[in-house]
Amino acid sequence: MKKNTFITPVILIIVFLFSSCVKDLEVEPIDPNVNTLNNVFKDQAAYKQALAKLYTSFAISGQTGGGGGLPDISGIDENFGNYIRQYWGLQELSTDEAIIAWDDATIKNFHWQTWSPNDVFITAIYSRIFYTVTISNEFIRNVNSKIGSASGTFLSDLKKFKAEARFLRALSYWHAIDMFGNVPFVTEADLPGAFFPQRITRADLFNYIEKELKEIETDLAPARQNEYARADKGAAWFLLAKLYLNAKVYIGTEKYTEALTYINQVIAAGYTLDGNYTKLFSADNNQSGEIIFPIAFDGQNTQQYGGMTFILHASNGGGMPLSGIDGGWGGIRTIKDFVSKFNISESNFASTTQYQSSDKRGMFFFDKSSWQWEITNVGTFTHGIGVTKFKNVTSAGGPAPNAHATFVSTDFPMFRLADAYLMYAEAVLRGGSGGDMATAVGYVNALRLRAYGNSSGNINTSGLTLNFILDERGRELYWEGHRRTDLVRFGQFTNGTYVWEWKGNVKNGIQTSSFRDLYPIPVNDLNANPHLQQNIGY
Fold first, then answer.
1. What is the mean pLDDT of residues 208-222?
2. Helix (H) and strand (E) counts for the chain?
3. Residue 387, in any domain of the structure
4. 30 with 55: CB under 8 angstroms?
């Protein structure tokens, strides 16, 4: 049985089931503009149902599903306004890992790095972030009002639910600090009403996220002990490690030792590398012991044209294998600069359309009879190289659980153990205490042993450099939403050290302005809130 199902019965309720042999988790709407204490939190079960709405805010973007009806945010088509779809786009399309052919609004500007403060897609992810923050605040307020009179199992559940809500809020605030820097700030203490949220500095938001994640640890379920796709201690440790690894970018202070503290806790928690790399991106990836925190999708019950449905369909076209979907949209693919990191060139496709190098993580498509290696026209999908990493079939090639030809059952692996291994190696290389080079090399070689099937790809201590780590992160984690953050941390997102095809809207790529390491505060919010300030350069 597929682990999560989302059912969409009536206008104001989305039903969300965690069918993980424990209990069902159904969704209740949370609207801070109504009296939710009386209308939503009507019994003990409703608290778990309302919690589910917080999780679904990453996966679907409206109240009815099916691709349309009562969207969570306005100003953009509901399917475009999906959290994972927009997060993926801003993290991947702006880098060497992905480029898009479509002409929707300003979508091409991301790979060109020419976006502006009135960009509709930047506004969409900014709005999604603060929508999740807002409904998390509302949920926490209502739990606080009940927790004093609760007892027994219900009290224990409420504490856990509240901790999970705080984790999800911290996750969204991490996206905010990473993408936007200084942003508006609201918590459960800010009651709904007419007011201008105060601006929080990047440093203060860093401290807030850090404090939240540490405080909730006691009440979260032990690592690997919660229902699938719900946050536990392992997810909180992982997010803390991410926060610390990027601290030099966020606050100008290195915290690699702190990063190693929490990376070590994640690694010691019992997660295991999956022996089958392709399983991590197939429709049965819910069964992998490597995934620490996913955003769950289901073909029958999370029916919307965002999330994993977008990633699989938009990356398919030009004769590519369908892998469990009913057709491609011909939108996103990758470029020669990225596939070269796998030592793959056009000549490798002389007699095949799918070439897999000795490093089996590179899953690409190129038909020399109809595709073009060099992208002379960004708007032509078959200019570039197709990516076949994600599939809507099981790792054995069978039908997806709750299979649907359009909507996808593959989960988005937001946090996984392989990333923790690479974070460990990077933190050691950057001088963090609490780790050593021999262990770092061992972790990297564990990934390369899986990738190559033998020790032929293993490295030694002299081969473990920061440049190697950046490339290895690309080879291991491409299209999983990490690349922009990684390139910024390594100083290679905007500068001229590393340019790629069509960076800066020039065929061979050029350096871009460093202020683009942050996205702008959307102009509508900037004009509406006198407390906000635009990021430098915009």
1. 98
2. 17, 11
3. no
4. no
